[in-house]
Every structure is written in C-alpha cells, then in structure tokens.
Amino acid sequence: MKIKQKTLKNGLKSYYFRIVLNGRPTMKSGFTSKKEATNAYRAYKVAEANGQLESQKTKRVKFSELAEEWLKTKAKSVKPSTLVKIKERYNLHIKPYFAGMYLDELTPIKAQKYVNDQAKGFVRYDWTIGIVSQIYQKALQYGYIDKNPFANVDKPRRKKAPVKDSVKFYDKEQLIKFLTSAYNLYAKDHYSRYVFFRLLAFTGMRKGEALALQWSDINLISKTLSISKTLTTVASGEIVSNQPKTQAGNRIITLDDDMVAVLAEWKLKQHEQFKELGYPSSPCQYVFNSATNSFITLGKPRNWCREIAEHAGLAPIIIHGFRHTYATLAVQAGMDIKQLQYQLGHNDVHTTLQIYAEVTKKQKTETASIFSKFINESNIKSNI
Predict the structure, then answer these.
(1) For 6-61, how does the pLDDT look when each residue is reduced to its tens digit (9 = 90+)?
(2) Is the dihedral of CA 92, 95, 98, 104 positive or negative?
(3) What does the alpha-carbon distance between residue 332 and residue 330 come to, in Å, rounded to a whole number?
(4) Is the pTM of this model over 0.85?
(5) φ, ψ for residue 29 (rounded to 5)?
(6) pLDDT digits over 158-215, tens only?
(7) DSSP characters for 216-277?
(8) How far is Cα of residue 287 from the mean position of the Cα atoms in its chain?
C-alpha cells in the first residue's frame, strides 16, 4: 500500500492511491488526509475479500425479463405449434403471478404454495411448473440466484379429469358403433366427416396429418397414402407444415379395400358438389376441404366427434383417442410392434410400447381365465 499526495490549485493537499480490485488496477483519489486514504484502501480490500464490491454484486433481474429471453431461446428448439402452447400457458398461468417479481424474491415456501395452488385448479398443472422451473434453472445458471426454489417442491397428485374425458379409446364394439353412427348421421350430408373418422380409425394417422392430406397424396390404384405434411398451429394461426412431428413421420401407408372405396366415393361426391356450383372439376386440393376450399381447422373435428358419440350413446373421446384405438386394436389383432411403430410414425419403438401398451378391459378379464384354464388342464393331466 502506497499513499501519495498532490497539491491542488487552491493550495490544499489531496491524497490518492492505486489499488488492484478483482484483477483490475484502478486509482482512488480525493481524500483529505493520509489516514483517510489508508482507511479507505483497507476498506476496499476487505470488501473485495467478502464479495461486497459493487462490481461483484449480481444485478437483480425480474422474472419477466428472464422469462422473455427464455421464450426466445425456446423458440429455436421446439416446433412452432409447441411454442404456441408454451406461450399460452405462460400468459395464462405464469405471467400474472410473477408480474413485477424479482427472481430472488421467490422462496422455496412461496414456490410450494404456487405449486399447491396450481394443483388445486388444473389437471395438467405439472406443465406449468415445468416451465417455471426451467426459467429458474436458467437463472441459477446465470448466477442470478443461489438455488432453484422449485428444486425440491412436492407435487400433489393431479386432479382426475372430468368423467367425459376419462375414456381414452374405444374397444372394437364401441368403434364399430361409433363409425356406424357417423355413417348414419353424415352419409347424405357432410360425408367427409364419416370419411375423416374412418381414416383415423383404420390408419392411426394424427389429426393434423389427416387434415393436411391432399388428393395428390393418395393413390387409389396402388391403395397407398403418403404422409408428408401436418396441420399445425403457429403464432399467426394454423398452417400446413412440411415438417413432420417426428423424423419417422414421413411414411407411406397401405389402405384396405373398404377404405379405398370410401375415399373414392367421397372424391366423387366432392367433385359433384363443385360441379353443382358451376366448376368443371373440383378446384380443391385438400381431401377434407373447408367452405373456402382450404383446409379444415384443427378444432372442428372435436365438435363432430361429440355429436357422433352422443348419437351413438357413447362417451366422447379426444381425437387423438382414435390413434390410441387403432394401436390397441392392432396389437389385439396381432400386428408386429415394429409394424405398428412405422404405421404410427414413431421415432422410437419405446414410445409405441409405453403409450399404447395398455390392456383393454376385455383382455384384463381374460387373463385370469387363461391362467386358470392352464392350471386346471395341468392338474387333469397329472391326475391321469
């Protein structure tokens, strides 16, 4: 430590010193006595050792600031439709609660309370907590906080979904009943709605894949259907994307004879509809066309499904449930798991196994009788 002095223009003496703080040399001046300069030097060194220098203090950042940056980064790693869902959940369930809050304000107790409140109000609250936790994990990475307050929260058991949504798929009898009802409702008018559900049920296609389907994707002669597009949601609305949901999403499906006949009949009906409007041929390229000769929006089939289910006396299922139905019935029919993986467009066979390895009620009841029959037969043979 070396304290220096200089004489100012007014004749007064001023003391200063040079010091290295955090590896950077700097000069501190303006002290009126050597003792004051010496005390200041020592104070700077103590502050440096304790991490109390202004340059060592981490800037306080608001949750909303980091969240906006996190969303921008997330946009580069997820599909546009996924980003839309994340933003919707953020704006509805996260942004209002954390408005104006600094990242370091949230304690583990407050985090647990937030989790509990979300669990009380929403079935899939874990999606929301996952987003918030990722943002806090990024804050930890940047050094804005010392610990992620969501690291050790307890997650209450999720609420049960409403009864009407508890049916995840149809068994064989229910599917036949549903399709029969769809045909009876729409055979004369809106025949395409029957075609839509039959296509889902007999191919395992995703809803977005079916709605993006064009006649050029179907070869009625070779009885094949090419899947290379999907209808998806982006910030500006819905678009037909050439990017599949998975790498295995692009695939060619073989159609059964009845499905080919149904599609051919709908193609003819569609042509006749446009002919009545004065068109020499159908100007619409989409298999399932809207009134404006474009694709049908993703939300429409849900209303059709409810109407058909009500008419059939069945509990409605979500549209994805027909994909689940196809997979379950395909396994029952003896389809090889690798064939099923290709048909569904899954990248990993484990996805096929995990999601669709549920056993139907009929199979569950048969399990006991099969085992019992096996044991009884063994006893009979051993007693002979």
Answers:
(1) 888 888 888 888 888 777 788 888 888 888 888 888 888 887 777 666 554 556 88
(2) positive
(3) 5
(4) no
(5) -140, 180
(6) 665 554 444 688 989 999 999 999 999 998 889 999 999 999 999 989 999 999 899 9
(7) GGEETTTTEEEE--EEEEETTEEEEESS-SSGGG-EEEEPPHHHHHHHHHHHHHHHHHHHHT
(8) 27
